[in-house]
Protein: Universal stress protein
Amino acid sequence: MTRIESGEGRVVVGVTGSLASLAALRAAAEEARRGCRTLVAVTAWAPPEGEAVYLRHPDAEWARHWCAEAGARLDRAFDAAFGGTPHGVRTERRVVRDRPGRALCSVAARPDDLLVVGARHGRRHATRVHRYVAAHAHCAVLTVPAPPVPRGLRRALRRVTAEDFALVGH
Structure:
């Protein structure tokens, strides 16, 4: 992993709760700790029906609900990655209403920032977020791969159904 040394910049990381974003969150925290930088974790959200439909029928209560859901997802990611807030790192959590790529690039707008994004293993093509960040970021970008899932387990997970998680005896 290439380390980007910088004095004042922040380490901005995109967080969705996926394995790849949890790996990115851990790597970003380590980069922030090493460089005495602030870790800025960003979760982007948009109304599930899309911004265009929402603008035709705005509902502030509905928007607050989805913003709160995004904030809870961000908190769960910190709990999953660190058991809370990582020790020894200044941390800022942001919930941004925008598309993920745009949200990340707007937060990581300083040239001395480091933008960290997660990537799934085995992806043949970059995701929309990766393409957007590569084209629009004004700072260094670090892509962190998700931990590999053993092949046999991947096959088993593909065959799992909702009934496999149902409580027995209920």
About this structure: The CA atoms of residues 55 and 123 lie 34 Å apart. The first helix runs from residue 19 to 35. Residues 11-165 form a domain with the Rossmann fold fold (CATH 3.40.50.620).
